[in-house]
Amino acid sequence: MSRRAGFLQSPWRDMLCSMSKRYLITGGAGFIGSHLAGRLLADGHQVTVLDDLSTGRIDNLASLRSNPRLQFVRDSVENQATVNLLASSTDAIFHLAAAVGVKLVAEEPVRTIRTTIHGTEVVLEAAHRFGRPVLVTSSSEVYGKGMRVPFKEEDDVIMGATQFSRWCYAYSKGIDEFLGLAYHKQFGLPVVLVRLFNTVGPRQVGMYGMVLPRFVEAALAGRPLEVYGDGNQTRCFCHVSDVVDVLVRLMETPAAVGTVFNVGGGEEVSINDLAARVIGLAGSRSEIRHIPYEQAYGLAFDDLPRRVPDLSRIRRQIGFQASYSLDQIIQSVVDEYRRAT
To answer: By residue range, what is the domain housing residue 162?
Structure first.
C-alpha cells in the first residue's frame, strides 16, 4: 500500500472501528447543522459545534444543550487558531458553515465570498494538518444556469454574469469543490462533497429568503403568499432529516471519498403550485401575490427556470430514497409553526 493510500484509508478505518466518535460541525447552530448535531448525539457520539451565530441561532440547539456530549464554541470558521484546535481533538469534520439564503447572498456579496471560500480553505487546511476526514456541503447553485435537466454531477455549468451578485455564491461554492477535490488529489485527504438542493423542514426561517417557511408563516397569519417572479420556476424539496441521514451515511462510507454527490428531493414543483399546496394544507384563505424580483431584492436579479437533481449516483452509493413526500414536508413545517404560536 502506498503512503498516500495508507493516509487515505487509516482515518476512515479508525473511525469505523470506534463505536463513539468525536465530530466537529462548522455552522452547527444553523438549520441543517443543528439537525445533524441532534442525529449524531442520538447515535451516541460526541459533537462540537462551531458557529459565530451570524445566521445560526442558539435556540436551534436548545433541546441539545443539556447533553454532556455536546460542546458549543462561538467563533468564526475563518479563525484558523480555533479551527486548528478543534480539528486536533476530533475524529472527523462536517463543514456546513456558509452564507445562507438567496436574499442574504444578494445583499451581502462580500461576506458571502469571504466566508464561503476562506472558511472552507481554513477547514481543509486544518483537516489536512491533523489527518481528519471532512465532508463539505456544496450547493445546487454550482449548476448556475445549466439547461440540461436533471442536473448530473459531471455536467458542464453555465454561470450568470458577474454583475448579478446572486451568482457569487455559485462561483464561491464551485471554488469550495475545487479546493476539496484538490486536497484529496494532491494530499490524499479524505474529502466528500455534497451538493444540496432545496432542504427544508422544522427550524428553517424565512428571513433570508427561504421560500417554504415564508409561505407557511404567511398562510397561517392570513397574509398573501408573495411569489417572486412569475412563479413558474420549479424546484425540488427534501426534508432535512433525509438530508442529515445522507450526510451521516456518506461520512461512514470510505468509497464516497473524492466524489461529488447531489442530494435532494425527486418531486419537481413550481413555486406557484408550492404556494397553492401550502394554502391548502394550512387551511388558509390567503391569496397568492406575484412580486417582481427587483422589488423583492431591491436590485436586478437573475434566476433559472428549473432546478432538478439527478440522484442516480447517491442511490447507487448508499441506496438513498427520500422518506418524506412534498405534502408531508409542507405539513411538518405547518405543524411546527402552529406549535410555536
So the answer is: 9-198+240-264+309-322
Integer Cα distance of 249 and 247 in angstroms: 6
Domain count, the chain: 1
- Is position 57 within any domain? yes
Listed in sequence order, the DSSP H helices in 188-284 are 211-221, 240-251, 271-282
Query: pLDDT by residue (tens digit) across 21-49?
Result: 999 999 999 999 999 999 999 999 999 99
3-state secondary structure of 115: helix
* pLDDT at residue 6 tops 50: no
CB 216 within 8 A of CB 330: yes
Active site annotation includes 171? no
Q: What is the DSSP letter of 29?
A: T
Q: What is the pLDDT of residues 297-311, one digit of tens each?
A: 766 667 788 999 999
Q: Are strands 260-263 and 191-196 parallel, antiparallel or unpaired?
A: parallel
Of 23, 143, 169, 228, which residue is the catalytic one? 169
